[in-house]
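Protocol step 4 of 6.
Sequence for DNA-3-methyladenine glycosylase (Amycolatopsis ultiminotia) entered exactly as in the expression construct, tag removed. Do not edit the line below.
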Amino acid sequence: MMQWCPPFPLDLAAVLGPLSRGRGSLNFRAHRGVWWLAANTPGGPGTLALLRRADGVVEAEAWGDGAEFLLDGVPALLGADDDDTGFVAHHDVVASARHDSPGLRLSSTGRVWDALLLAVLEQKVTGKEAIRSWAQLCRWFGTPAPGPGPDFLRVPPDPIAVRSIVDWNWHRIGVDLKRREALVAAARVAPRLEEAARIGGREGRALLRTVRGVGVWTAAEVAQRAWGDPDAVSFGDYNIPSMVGHNLLGHRIDDEQMAELLAPYAPHRQRVVRYLETAGSRAPRFGPRIELRDYRAM
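Step 5 output, structure tokens:
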């Protein structure tokens, strides 16, 4: 067990929120006041429990072969490595969101594989589809989390387990051919991909994109979580351009317009997106909804 007193304001839910997917998140979830993380680490599977005391001190306890790695990574996980030096708010709404969210920092897990696994599952499908597949993948092909955590907690399947999944089982969990091919390709070179977290930045994202099926959106989603990349915007996302445009201009925009609008914020473009997301303002919903597809029936 360890105790850590953050030397800065800390909003635990805002910092850790991007790592969770609600009730379908079997590897990371807040449960009865404790944040539980089950993860693959260089030492093996491990479980981490985080509790924020009333005095602000964070108590952390870990179990399993990955316990030491997870405990050592607690400060970075809670944003200690995040550096906003040079950030300037060019819009009043960004300045206001930043002022209202002093405890928002960018989290860094230090590991690529678990984030990449989820990001690939989220490609080109609705959130409900992706979370359904993620929960089934962790439940059927992951492993029970070490330690005394909640019954639902599972360590996601490691690269070896992913390579062993046969086509029929991919079909059962609703993962189409393109995504399963990307996952298997990533699993084959998983140790090399972990270097991306050490390299960081544009170069780290470029390393991830050497895997066929991993594009700009997927690499950005991984970078945001694995090394807290402050400039990795998820271009190609269905909702983010509309949210950014609605907040900064009052109307919807596309990726190209968002890139131009956020350009003055480099190298903190993703930080702006996080501030706007935390502010809670969303673009009005118009037009047809995304059709929910069930690949298990196709």
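Step 6, annotate. The first strand starts at residue 2 and ends at 4.
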